Amino acid sequence: PKTQKDAASPSRKGDFDAVRNDIASILDQPDYDDGSIGPVLVRLAWHASGTYCAETKTGGSNGAGMRYEAEGGDPANAGLEHARRFLEPVKEKHPWITYADLWTLAGVVAIKEMGGPDCKWKPGRTDFVDDSKCPPRGRLPDGAQAAEHLRFIFYRMGFNDQEIVALAGAHSLGRCHSDRSGWEGPWSVTPTKFSTQYYKMLTKFKWEEKKWEGPRQFRNEDLGEELMMLPTDMALIEDEKFIPWVKKYAEDRDAFYKDFADVFSKLIELGVERTDDYESAPTFSKAEGDKK
Ligand code: DDH
Q1: What is the pTM of this model?
Q2: Mean pLDDT, 10 residues at a time, over the chain (292 residues)?
Q3: Which of 63, 100, 143, 182 is 20 to 30 Å from 237 at the Cα level?
Q4: Do residues 20 and 135 both lie within one domain?
Q5: Is the beta carbon of 227 within 6 A of some atom in ligand 1?
Q6: Cα of 13 to ligand 1 centre, how many Å?
Q7: Residues 202, 244: one domain?
Q8: In this predicted structure, what is the pLDDT of residue 1?
């Protein structure tokens, strides 16, 4: 079948459950980071989507612009080439799926497989045929900043304060890499498990600036040198409108899972314009053909 490397048309209706199962089967990678590529796949889906601007209706998860240097080479996207490379065999096996659908679906599958909620996902994204529609660089958040920056970035996408805090809970997953962002370390002791731990760490421990040569980040002396918080993570407990949500999600797992599923689904829909055919496509809330 014709590969859709440069597909201006949406994924043909293929077997999305088969794609889901193949994504799930590659998550465990013993030699990679903490043994799973799940976290970096979640970040790929987020960075693919988080360039959206509601006012100009540009950016977002349509297009898979990170295949091009213009977007893929944005320093904010450093390291995501690993995520894209891991997904390449899945794309080769199912060439009918667009990259834009594959990357967002991979995030959803990874969240579920790591113990998180079912996030609704719907196909119909197209891939840019060249880099002319790639969003400008600089639309993704800068971890060195504070609450004002978070609002500037996330309000632009159309999110509110509660949604900003719910989205940030993804930092229970994965880690910072000094050779990618410059920061170093995970936020949680179980970085391959979806959980409320990020909020618990923020609310139950005192964080102080780490004394080191690297960029400004925070540490807790009882937790040791590994675990970390970014300045933008600290902003969530320093801001009076953010902190009630941090406290709520630290205590109420069900509320967090539900709100996260809603907001992540909203995130990966940003910038998607479907043809009529796909407008009526079913919304897959989970893998119906889950063989496990
Ligand atoms: Fe994040 N994130 N993120 N993040 N993020 C990093 C890693 C991961 C910020 C900065 C960083 C979200 C929000 C923010 C994930 C998911 C999400 C890293 C480390 C930095 C820096 C990169 C590296 O060195 O490899 C900032 C700033 C924000 C913000 O201001 C709100 C959101 C909304 C999500 C989401 O998925 C909904 C995940 C997962 C990772 C771990 C990646 C990995 O490789 O592991």
Answers
A1: 0.95
A2: 56 86 98 98 98 98 98 98 98 96 98 98 95 97 98 98 98 98 98 98 97 97 94 98 98 98 98 79 55 36
A3: 182
A4: yes
A5: no
A6: 31
A7: yes
A8: 40
DSSP label at residue 292: -
Confidence at residue 283, expressed as pLDDT on a 0 to 100 scale: 66
Residue pair 173/42 in contact (Cβ under 8 Å)? The answer is yes
Query: 17 is written with which tokens?
Result: 């459950």
3 state SS of 69: helix
CA distance 102 to 109: 10
Q: Are 66 and 47 in contact, with CB atoms under 8 Å apart? A: yes
Q: What is the CATH number of the domain that holds 129?
A: 1.10.520.10
Q: Are 208 and 219 in contact (CB under 8 A)?
A: yes
10 Å CB burial of residue 68 (0-12, 13-18, 19+) is middle
**With the C-alpha atoms ordered 38, 253, 220, 147, is the resulting torsion angle positive or negative?**
positive
Please tell me the distance between residue 144's alpha carbon and the centre of ligand 1 in angstroms. 12
What CA–CA distance (Å, rounded) separates 216 from 30? 30
The residue with tokens 């102080």 is: 208
The residue whose C-alpha atom lies closest to atom 20 belonging to ligand 1 is: 176
Question: In which residue are the tokens 């880690």 written?
Answer: 175
Query: What's the confidence (pLDDT) of residue 286?
Result: 54
Closest-lying ligand 1 atom to the alpha carbon of residue 107: 36
Residue owning the nearest CA to atom 22 of ligand 1: 176
**What is the reported pLDDT for 9?**
79
